[in-house]
């Protein structure tokens, strides 16, 4: 727990799929795909990865000129790469911006996140493809993105940092009877007492059952007897009146 950090220092698809990084089994198929993937960063990408920003959630109508206008406020830009579809040429909604100085990069990372451009609130983070060890992109089941509706949220990034795990070893051991020998013996004796009490209760109930049946039957005969006596008395009165 001493070296715990909310932001991942090394990418692990299994940990990224867990809210606190403690999952031991993947909870969706995308994590399985990311764990089995062998991804090699794109060698065709040029520029310094430590001076590059990743900008996502862009309006599909946003252009390179608009990005240059907004992000040049933080410092001198060396290169802007708006990712487009190879077939249609339309924007995919994310871009990479390389600065000339680290000071401008840090300032843009701090101030440009959640900035509204063309009616869209953007997301800004450092480039991770070439800087984070073990990185697997979203298209292979990795990444730090995802939607709540799909159930494929990823944690350990700026948008969704890890939550600190809760360690309760003593409570867990006591709950499952893994504590001292005295506690285990006490729990076993308690279970025996309950079992013997249940058996005695069932036996006494079986004994009382025929007695109740007899009492019910006796009660019915008494009522019949009383009704017969009342009828006979009524007949005697009628005979006298006549």
TrEMBL record:
Coiled coil, from the record: none
One GO BP: mRNA splicing, via spliceosome
Keyword RNA-binding: yes
UniProt xrefs under InterPro entries: Nucleotide-bd_a/b_plait_sf (IPR012677), RBD_domain_sf (IPR035979), RRM_dom (IPR000504), snRNP35_RRM (IPR034146), U1_U11-U12_snRNP_70-35kDa (IPR051183)
Cited SMART domains: RRM
The UniProt record lists the keyword RNA-binding: yes
Places the protein is found: Nucleus
Positions of region (Disordered): 147-242
Chief localisation class: nucleus
Transmembrane segments: none
GO cellular component assignments: precatalytic spliceosome; U12-type spliceosomal complex
SUPFAM superfamilies the UniProt entry points to: RNA-binding domain, RBD
Keywords: Nucleus, RNA-binding
Gene Ontology molecular function, alphabetical: mRNA binding; snRNA binding
Protein name listed in UniProt: U11/U12 small nuclear ribonucleoprotein 35 kDa protein
Upper lineage: Eukaryota, Metazoa, Chordata, Craniata, Vertebrata
Gene: Snrnp35
